[in-house]
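Why does residue order matter? Because the sequence determines the fold. Keep that principle in mind as you read this record.
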Amino acid sequence: MNQISIDYDTLTNRVKFKGDTLAYDELFYHLMDSDEISRTDTLMYYSRIMAEKYNNEKAFLDYFKAFCEKNNIYIDYPHYNRLDLSRLPVNSKKEAENWLHKMLDKKIITEEQFNSVKR
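Structure:
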């Protein structure tokens, strides 16, 4: 198990209020040992903060991977042509497409990768 070196609250505060990438990485690896539901929801929460507030590229990818895991969608970076969003409910599909569009705008993925996603 990945034990955290400092308390959980300190880590989360460093992520939320400072964009501390070391704290984010430690939190990420700690959460990977959690049960799936806790892991995906919590990872989505903190990775979204790091992505949107602090423009962290890894967090954009972490968020989307957690989203896919939560929705039982197979994701194999960088093979977006294998990503199939067609079976998602409308709201979830819209959320996924919006996130992919953000990743495209930030140049984390290419237009070719974006367009290769099955919708």
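Residues 8-116 form one domain.
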